[in-house]
Amino acid sequence: MTLEPAIAAPDLYAAALALTNERRYREAEAALQGVAAVTDDVELHARIAGTLAFVLDQTGRPAEGEQLCRETLADAALSAHTRGIVAGQLASIVMHRGRLDEAIGWFGRAIDALSDDPMAVANLRMNRSVGAMQRRDLAAAFADLEEAVAVYEEHGTPIDVAEARHNLGYTALLGGDLIRAMQEMAAARPVIGEESAANAAIGDVDMAEALRDAGLVTEAERLLRDAARAFHKNGMAQARGEAELHLARSLLRHDPADAARAAGHAARHFTALGATSWADRARGIRLRALLSGGAIDRAGRTVSDVAVDDADVTPVAAALTRAGFAGEAAALRLSRELWRARHDRPAGRMPRIDEAASLEVRMLAHEVRAERAARAGRGAVARRHAASGLDELSDWRASFGSLDLQTSLSMYGNNLMLVGLSAAVQSRSPETVFEWSERARHLSLQVVPLRPPADPEQAAELSELRMLRADAGSDDWTSDPRAIELGERLRRRQWTTTGAAEIERPVDLAAAVAALDVDTVLLNYVFSPEGLSCLVVTTRGAQLVDLPGWSEARKALPALRSDLDMSAAVRSGPMMRSSAGRWPTTSTACRRCWWRPR
User: Fold this and answer.
1) Which end of the chain, N or C, is less surrounded by CB atoms within 10 Å?
2) Is the pLDDT of residue 454 over 70?
3) Is the CB of residue 280 less than 8 Å from the CB of residue 262?
4) Tell me, what's the pLDDT at 121?
């Protein structure tokens, strides 16, 4: 028996809408097109068009979605309620295309038209809160989300409440409240995950950002990998590519081979979408990963050396410049010069670096100069260039009263620190080695605060900086004029409130010696490209001792924890002699200052 289309169409549309809300976009698009073919109802047709426009936007066809909404709104026969629903869909599409003021206007019109439908208004407030975040208006975002939560708790479903609370968590993240951010997101995750894998993936990308800011990089990268797979399964090509690109950027600093893989995947997926500038950005990250030692052969194995020549770098750098990503182009060119310096190849032309360049680009420029000097055997010059870069980095980090932002910047100093440490150890000067071991300790030892600062103005300025970083989608956020202005303002605020004494400065070797007594020895372990050394400091002076057995010692480290546990637990009998005998003890007081590249 065949149902009449007029009877079946509303039910078919409800089923298609459910697929859309579950982000099963491929199935939803087919279902929407099917129901549109069996109904002549003008109002239902308009609602179908609005939902289909959303699906088109989510699957990488925003221009088609926008056009469909505008064509639908041109029908004067539509009721005010239906017009409000379609206007809300148009607002979301326009917002995704970056036209925030226009989007906020459309959201306002839609909310006014749907004032008698609290659930529809709550949905619109949810979407408008995203626009408010992008406009850096966290107060407006919180207001919309809290209104939406109240409506959902009264009229909605558990998934409605969970999604709104997740967005509250992300807004808290932008405000620097990592505790509330992770609490809200973690509480919402089980409910969101039950709804669909795509919903869970969207939430996980936001959670990855919170975990990264809390210093849990490995867990953040795991979530990004899982999210990319979920987006792929649900036909969300643009979201998949962006997750892969975020993953590649994160991996670039510590696993260039994996970064090259992830960026290569992203580039192919963006190319298939016709997203040219996104594809070029992914190619740039891939080339930088290859230049950092991330070459892989066809079997997926890491290759120890690779030549990336001008034929590879130049066209991608030029494309990035044309697309407005001058900082990413400069970072790529500098990565090529750094590779040339490390492999004793003829130096190329340095790109022009001005004061408006991002912090990453300026640090790379210092790194190239330091590496060139080190390779030429000019250790003092290499240390001077490395120190100059690290001092500039320290000035930037001192601008922020927020250590999550400080920590996100400290990664730029790792390679400079290695160059400086290597040159210091090669100098054999205890004073120089101590200076650089202290620099390393100050760079690496960080604690991330999980609550925003008490000063509301400082909290607002730091929130804006976080949003600039999130909006940039790259490491260029530090070159934004507004970021520079906020950094200066935060620096002045710190000077007038906490004072310069709050910034801890390293001590020199003479001060360290003066602080010791005859029964105390200070041991500074220094890990550098030269190997592991120990600077032994007593009241009589300092001596640098190489530890040539480091490679063998590293093999024993996995057993150290269990042996120490046994030593602590067994205090008598033959087992005590067995466990205690494996590791030497000392009666001197020690401070171990480790620095390891991350």
Assistant:
1) N
2) no
3) no
4) 95
Model confidence at 7: pLDDT above 70: no
Angle subtended by helix axes 456-472 and 403-410, to nearest 10: 40
Distance CA 256, CA 289 (A): 5
Q: How does pLDDT run across 265-290, given as a tens digit for each residue?
A: 999 998 988 888 889 999 999 999 99
Do 133 and 171 contact (CB within 8 A), yes or no?
yes
Q: In Å, what is the CA distance from 401 to each residue of 449, 487, 497?
A: 10, 10, 11
The 3-state DSSP class for residue 173 equals helix
Question: Which residues fall within 8 angstroms of residue 578, CB to CB, at 6 or more apart?
Answer: none
- Which has the closest alpha carbon to 179: 404, 454, 450? 450
Say if CB 21 and CB 31 are below 8 A apart: no
Cβ atoms within 10 Å of 49's Cβ, excluding its own: 22
174-205 confidence digits (pLDDT tens): 776 766 787 888 888 888 888 778 888 888 88
CA distances from residue 439 to 181, 424, 547 in whole angstroms, order as listed: 33, 12, 21
Stated length of the chain: 598
- Indicate the pTM of the whole model: 0.61
Instruction: Tell me how far apart the alpha carbons of residues 36 and 567 are, in angstroms, rounded to a whole number.
Output: 74
> Do 400 and 359 touch, CB atoms closer than 8 A?
no
Give the three-state DSSP class for 19.
helix
